[in-house]
Amino acid sequence: MSFSVISSYLIQHPVLTALLIAHFLSDFTFQSQALADAKKLHLKALFMHLFIVSLPLLILALLTPVQNGDLFFQVWLSHLAIDYVKYFLNKHHWIKYSWEAGAFLVDQLLHIISIIILYHITGVNIASHSLWIEPNYLLLQILFILLISKPVNILFKLYFSKYQVAEGEEEQTVTGAGALIGQLERLIMGMFLLLGQYTAIGLVFTAKSIARYDKISKSQAFAEYYLIGSLFSIISVLVLYVLLIL
């Protein structure tokens, strides 16, 4: 099996891949939107988030030799520093609302770059008999599944919410249902890709289109928004699959 430069690199550095998994778990999967919004302006919420960040790092520290404690602590400190700077800037209203999408990307890039730099500067002490010394493809698959779920939802919301159609009271769906459907469709796509069942991916969008057929046929604006969301889901899954799995 051939691998991309990124996937080959991460497979050979399982601890780094695990650190990235820990980051996306704490910054997305384990963090509610309410907490994400609150930590921008309230220290209490920021400290709660930092506590959540510490949990997967603590688990990693327990699963690796004790000499690696410094690495995980430094990663946590870097997360604290980046999030505190963002809190400070938001508290003084120095980050405009129109900059929110760009600020999100900069924030995530800073976290990822910090993790990679600290990993290489601090180094990892792994015993020769440890499972961490072997190339690990499973961790890469877990990272792929995490990335195509909530992070992609947030990206779509930040960059494409302006195309969303205002719905009448009688047409409103359950809050969060659309986001959940998007996550589920990407997860199913991702699993089909990992299993090599490429043709089955079309079934996902067929089922989704049937459920929304009435609104698609009656509203051109909704049909366009639906198409944007579907294409974004396909592109995001395929790009991450090529970068992390192939």
Give the terminus-to-terminus CA distance: 8 Å
Strand fraction band?
under 5%
| SSE order | HHHHHHHHHHHH
* Helicity, as a percent range: over 70%
Name the assembly state: single chain
The coarse silhouette is globular
> What is the average per-residue confidence, as pLDDT, rounded to a whole number?
89
Q: Tell me about the largest β-sheet.
A: none
| Total DSSP E strands | 0
What would you call the structural class?
mainly alpha
Number of helices: 12
- Unreliable segments of 5+ consecutive residues: none
Q: Compute the CA-based radius of gyration.
A: 20 Å
What does it look like?
By secondary structure, this protein is mostly helical. 73% of the residues lie in helices and 0% in strands. It contains twelve helices and no strands. It has helices at residues 5-11, 14-29, 33-38, 43-63, 69-91, 100-122, 137-147, 150-160, 177-195, 201-211, 213-218, 220-244. Helix 4 (43-63) runs antiparallel to helix 5. 21% of the residues are buried. The model has no long low-confidence stretch (mean pLDDT 89).
